[in-house]
Write a structure and sequence with these properties.
Oligomer: single chain
Radius of gyration: 44 Å
Largest sheet: 5 strands, mixed
């Protein structure tokens, strides 16, 4: 039997013991009062108490009625979805107190049943101890000795003075036995409840670990898939460029050979062959440019570099709710397509890494220029990484920069900082 099922069994036993206890006290008290009245000893009994005893059947009917109502409320609470559960908890407490008052505070163990029942409806570390604290408080408040200072009530032991010593002792022993068993069951229930909470916490931790492991596997799979996709794309482009250049160069070589053969024979034929070579070369150049342009971001095809960067920043900031600040002191630069693409990709990849891996909510970007060197500095307020192992993104950045004669530096000691230096061929648009 698991902890939850065992806990429910203990709670069922508590309900049964409390029912028996309430029934026992109410019946014994009512029968005793009735016997005292019929035996003619009422006057002597009244001299020993400070208040009139209740009508014999009143205590029985009121206590049992409120106890049954309490059981009904608990059943509804457990089996039906209740929108405002605080209402039913208050009603359960009122019924609990009503039973205790009807028994003239001769039994307060019903408070423990009430506390045990509502424990499971208090979630969160700050609320878990609240039922225990409140229950302990009310358990002390609804104590006969404490209440007798403020209210005129008669103890169960006083009723037992009517009987001879042995009978009275047995009746009091039975009551104390029920009370003790109820307390023991409550302690067992509390231990099981705390054990269940610990088991749930361990299960949650285990699930979190499994989720993190699965997430790492997905990230690795995504990285491998991305790498594979890029490898396939590179191979496709390599094949296309190879075929294009191969065809073009073959045509050029054949045209030059033909031109060489007729150079001394026919100038007209020479011009014709050279014209054909020129056409083949132009067509080959067009095909190569088409293949290379497939690698160029669409944003750079639709707008200039700064506009494309601003557009990208706006979209990523809106999607991630991160604050991305761009400070461009280099002005508008007259760059080649490869230079523009490198700058765009570096900023794009850095922002993505800052938000996805660094958990940053602020990213600052500086674009500066000194002579023919453009410097891109990107700094975030993320978690950083003391020991940075270059992944595919950083490696790809470095490869792009190496092709342009640039260099890159990274620092993860305080957030993440990337500095890329790119030599430019042309300068500003106003140069």
């Amino acid at each position: 039997m698991d902890t939850s099922a065992l806990k429910n069994s203990v709670l069922s036993f508590m309900k049964s013991f409390n029912f028996i206890t309430v029934l026992y006290i109410s019946v014994v008290s009512a029968v005793t009062i009735l016997k005292i009245g019929n035996s003619g000893g009422a006057l002597m009994f009244l001299k020993t108490v400070n208040t009139l005893p209740p009508v014999p059947g009143k205590m029985f009917l009121i206590s049992l009625s409120f106890f049954v109502l309490l059981m009904v409320l608990m059943y509804m609470h457990d089996n039906y979805e209740i929108k405002h559960q605080w209402y039913i908890i208050v009603m359960e407490f009122i019924c609990t107190v009503s039973v205790i008052v009807a028994l003239q505070v001769n039994y307060n163990g019903l408070i423990l049943l009430f506390v045990a029942h509502i424990m499971k409806y208090f979630e969160g570390s700050s609320k878990k101890l609240l039922p225990l604290i409140l229950g302990s408080t009310f358990f002390l408040i609804f104590d006969f000795n404490a209440c007798s200072y403020f209210f005129k009530i008669t103890s169960f032991e006083t009723y037992m003075e009517y009987y001879i010593g042995t009978v009275a002792a047995i009746l009091i022993l039975i009551k104390n036995l029920f009370t003790t068993l109820n307390i023991i069951l409550f302690i067992v229930y509390t231990i099981l409840h705390l054990r269940e909470q610990m088991d749930e916490k361990d299960e949650i931790n285990s699930l979190n670990e499994r989720l993190q492991a699965a997430n790492r596997e997905l990230e690795n799979y995504a990285a491998e898939s991305e790498k594979l996709a890029q490898t396939r794309e590179r191979n496709r482009l390599a094949r296309e460029i190879h075929d294009t250049l191969g065809h073009t160069l073959t045509g050029i070589i054949a045209g030059i050979d033909a031109a060489s053969a007729v150079a001394d024979v026919s100038p007209e034929m020479l011009k014709r062959y050279l014209s054909l070579v020129s056409d083949v070369a132009r067509q080959g150049m067009t095909d190569v440019r088409r293949s290379v342009n497939e690698l160029r971001p669409d944003a750079l095809e639709q707008r200039d570099l700064l506009s494309a960067i601003h557009k990208m920043i706006s979209q990523m900031s809106a999607a991630s709710k991160a604050k991305i600040i761009l400070d461009n002191s280099a002005g508008r630069l007259a760059l080649g397509e490869d230079e523009e693409e490198v700058i765009y990709r570096i900023i794009q990849e850095s922002i993505t890494n800052s938000i996805r891996h660094g958990k940053a909510d602020t990213v600052r970007i500086w674009i500066t220029r000194e002579y023919n060197i453009v410097t891109i500095t990107i700094k975030d307020n993320g978690v950083g990484a003391p020991d940075i192992e270059p992944g595919f993104g950083l490696t790809h950045m470095k490869e792009r920069l190496d092709m342009l004669g640039g260099k890159i530096q990274v620092d993860g000691s305080d957030g993440f900082c990337l500095v890329a230096e790119i030599p430019i061929r042309w300068g500003t648009e106003n140069d």
